[in-house]
Design brief:
The protein is mainly α. It has one domain. The protein has helices at residues 4-14, 17-57, 59-73, 103-110, 132-139, 148-153, 166-169, 200-213, 216-232, and strands spanning 78-84, 90-96, 157-159, 185-187. The strands form two sheets. A two-stranded antiparallel ribbon has the order 1-2. Strands 3-4 form a two-stranded parallel sheet. A hairpin with a 5-residue loop joins strand 1 (78-84) and strand 2 (90-96). The mean pLDDT is 84. Keywords: Membrane, Transmembrane, Transmembrane helix. This is Multidrug MFS transporter.
Length: 237
């Protein structure tokens, strides 16, 4: 007579029930991997295509903005900064320079006037460091366009949480760090919902919601919503 343990194993595997369950589990897992992999591949394809087309089509605008910045004070055209990307990896992050040349040195003196009271991010609605051309390109988010190069390189995506500076990440809680689970983006859900007017904790909440429900169609929707958000300039400062 078979022991109870042996009989249980026999019923589970010899009769195929356990094996069938395992096959179903791995089949579902395999399908899920294919779906996620396909979405990432499509997202990357869109990133490469859009970034190349964007840089080519916007080249005349890039040249015009560069000349305006150079004529203003003779300083550098681009402002380079270290930002934190997916999984905490740091990468060089360019913007058209919209502030005076020594803006970072002046920042420490302006911290008390921070309009974001969360002490993690720094924003001022009337930042005295911004130049005349800087105010225009920031209002229309033109200063962010050099980041198309980061999208092409793969450091960023068209849509995703905005990349923070290392000093901000040092203040992150464990839940805040969820923003680093995916590639940062040129635009994001809170950028089209109020931009700088949205408190940091609400930004994190919206970013996490995006991460949990991301899809190609959601990205397209956010990109379309970015156009009126940029034209109205709401929350841009």
């Amino acid at each position: 007579m078979m022991s109870q343990d042996f009989e249980e194993l026999y019923n589970r595997y010899a009769k195929g029930k356990g094996v069938l369950r395992k096959v179903k589990f791995y089949r579902k897992k395999y399908i899920w991997v294919l779906v996620i992999g396909g979405t990432k591949l499509m997202k990357r394809t869109i990133d490469i295509t859009a970034s190349v087309c964007g840089m080519v089509c916007l080249l005349p605008l890039f040249i015009f903005v560069a000349l305006c910045i150079k004529v203003t004070d003779g300083g550098s055209i681009l402002f380079w900064q270290t930002r934190v990307g997916q999984w905490g990896r740091e990468f060089p992050f360019p913007k058209f320079r919209s502030m005076v040349a020594n803006a970072e040195k002046l920042k420490a003196k302006l911290m008390e006037q921070n309009d974001h009271k969360d002490s993690i991010t720094f924003k001022m609605k009337k930042d005295p460091r911004i130049t005349w051309i800087g105010r225009i390109i920031r209002k229309l988010s033109i200063d962010e366009l050099p980041q198309l190069w980061c999208v092409l390189k793969g450091d960023m995506s068209l849509v995703g949480p905005r990349p923070p500076v290392p000093s901000e990440v040092e203040k992150y809680t464990l839940s805040d760090r969820r923003r680093l689970d995916i590639k940062p983006g040129l635009t994001c859900i809170w950028q089209v919902s109020g931009r700088g007017d949205i408190p940091f904790k609400e930004q994190v909440k919206l970013d996490v919601q995006y991460i949990e429900s991301q899809s190609v169609w959601l990205d397209i929707k956010i990109i379309i919503m970015t156009v009126p958000a940029v034209l109205t300039g709401k929350g841009a400062y």
